[in-house]
Input
Amino acid sequence: MKTVTIQELHRETDRLVQTAETEDVLVVDKGRPRVVLKKANDQPEFETFWQQRERQLASIATVKEDSTAYVSEDRDGR
Output
């Protein structure tokens, strides 16, 4: 695990994010551990909103007919 200071994180964020794709990066402040940068793909809790949404939409039953017929029936029934 690579260790960097908060000042290094501020100066070299891009490089450290790239490093975190291959190894964990421990960020310390005044010698005390603060956070660990990890590759997000390895963490299921970091599933993106859109990935969750795609899963939800895929689980919805689909209608094989034109939906305008259902809308028309609903509208005519008022």
Notes: The longest helix spans residues 49-59. The chain has a mean pLDDT of 86. The chain has one domain: 2-65.
